[in-house]
From TrEMBL:
PANTHER family tied to this protein: BAX INHIBITOR 1, BAX INHIBITOR-RELATED
Compartment(s) where it occurs, according to its Swiss-Prot or TrEMBL record: Membrane
Membrane topology category: Multi-pass membrane protein
Chief site of localization: membrane
Key words of the record: Membrane, Transmembrane, Transmembrane helix
Domain of life: Eukaryota
Keyword Transmembrane helix among UniProt keywords: yes
TM regions (residue ranges): 64-81, 93-114, 120-141, 148-171
InterPro entries: Bax_inhibitor_1-related
Gene Ontology cellular-component terms listed: membrane
Name of the featured protein: Bax inhibitor 1
C-alpha cells in the first residue's frame, strides 16, 4: 500500500496526474488516442456482456445472490492480478466475467422494470447508448483535449435532445418533454 501512495505522490509532483493534468488543453498524442480507443472498446464489450447477463437472467432466471458473490469475487481477483502484458488476457476475461455476472445480478431489477413498463428500459438504453456513442466518437476523433471535453458533452446533449424530439413526434408531446427541450436547448446555447 505504501508503494501505491508513494508512486501517486511522485506522479503528482511531476505533473503526471491530478487536477493539473486535466487543466492542460493541448494536443492528444497518438499513443493516448490509441489508448482511448482500447478503453472505449473494452467498455463497450463489458456493456455487451452485462446486457447478455441480464438477458440470461430473463431467459433462465440465473441472477441472484450467487451471481453477486461471483461478481465480487471476480472483481477482487481482477484487482489482485498485476497489470502486465502477460496477464492482459486473464484480466480481460475476468472483467468480462464480472460484467456478465453483474448483468445477471441486475437481471431481477430489469425483469421488474419490464413488468412495470417496458418503455422505461428502452428509454434508458437509448439515452445511455447515445451518450456513450457521443463520448466514444469524441475520444476517437478529437485531436486536442478541449475538443474532447467540449465535443463529448455537446454532442451527447444535442443528440439526446434530437432523439427526444423524434420520440415525442411519434408518441405524443407532453408539457414535461417540451420544458426539458427548452431548458436543454438554453443550456447548450
Amino acid at each position: 500500500m505504501e508503494s501505491l501512495f508513494g508512486q501517486s505522490q511522485r506522479r503528482r509532483r511531476a505533473g503526471g496526474s491530478g487536477f493539473e493534468s486535466l487543466k492542460r488543453l493541448g494536443h492528444i498524442s497518438p499513443a493516448v488516442q490509441s489508448h482511448l480507443k482500447h478503453v472505449y472498446l473494452t467498455l463497450c464489450s463489458a456493456l455487451a456482456f452485462s446486457a447478455l447477463g441480464a438477458y440470461l437472467h430473463i431467459l433462465l432466471n440465473v441472477g441472484g445472490a450467487l451471481t453477486t458473490v461471483g461478481c465480487v469475487a471476480s472483481i477482487a481477483f481482477l484487482i489482485s492480478l498485476p497489470a502486465s502484458r502477460d496477464q492482459e488476457r486473464n484480466r480481460l476475461a475476468l472483467l468480462m466475467s464480472a460484467a456478465l455476472l453483474q448483468g445477471a445480478s441486475v437481471g431481477p431489477l430489469v425483469d421488474l422494470v419490464i413488468d412495470l413498463d417496458s418503455r422505461i428500459l428502452v428509454t434508458a438504453f437509448v439515452g445511455t447508448a447515445v451518450a456513450f456513442a457521443c463520448f466514444s466518437g469524441a475520444a476517437i476523433i478529437a485531436k486536442r483535449r478541449e475538443y474532447l471535453y467540449l465535443g463529448g458533452l455537446l454532442s451527447s446533449g444535442l443528440s439526446i435532445l434530437l432523439w427526444l424530439q423524434f420520440a415525442t413526434s411519434i408518441f405524443g408531446h407532453t408539457s414535461a418533454t417540451f420544458m426539458f427541450e427548452v431548458m436543454g436547448t438554453n443550456l447548450k446555447l
